[in-house]
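can u do me a favor
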C-alpha cells in the first residue's frame, strides 16, 4: 500500500503534508504535489494533515490513474520536504470539480 495525491490538490497545493513525512517522498509540480509510491512507507501521517483531503490510500477503488500520475511525475519533479505558505487562492479552488483540466506537468521549485 502507498498513499496517493488526488485531484483536489490541483491549484490548492497545501504543503502541510510534506512537513510530517518521515521519508521525504513528496515531489512538487507547478500546481500540485505527488507522492513517490516506491518511497512511501505507508505510515499515513500525511493523510490527516492535508487541509484539502487530497491524500488517499491506494487501496481505495478508482485511484489507478492517480497512482500512475503520482509515480510518473515523482520521477521528473523536484523533491519537497518543507512546508511553505500556500497561495491565498487555494481556498477558492478547494473542492472545485473538474480540476484535472487545470493540471500542469511543469515542475515546481522544490527545496
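np, heres the sequence
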Amino acid at each position: 500500500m502507498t498513499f496517493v495525491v488526488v485531484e483536489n490538490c490541483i491549484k490548492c497545493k497545501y504543503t502541510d503534508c510534506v512537513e510530517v513525512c518521515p521519508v521525504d517522498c513528496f515531489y512538487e509540480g507547478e500546481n500540485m504535489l505527488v507522492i513517490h509510491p516506491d518511497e512511501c512507507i505507508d505510515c499515513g501521517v500525511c493523510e490527516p494533515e492535508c487541509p484539502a483531503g487530497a491524500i488517499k490510500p491506494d487501496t481505495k477503488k478508482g485511484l489507478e490513474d492517480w497512482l500512475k500520475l503520482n509515480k510518473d511525475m515523482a520521477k521528473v519533479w523536484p523533491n519537497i520536504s518543507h512546508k511553505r505558505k500556500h497561495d491565498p487562492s487555494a481556498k477558492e479552488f478547494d473542492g472545485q470539480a473538474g480540476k484535472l483540466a487545470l493540471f500542469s506537468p511543469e515542475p515546481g521549485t522544490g527545496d
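The mean pLDDT is 95. hope that helps!!
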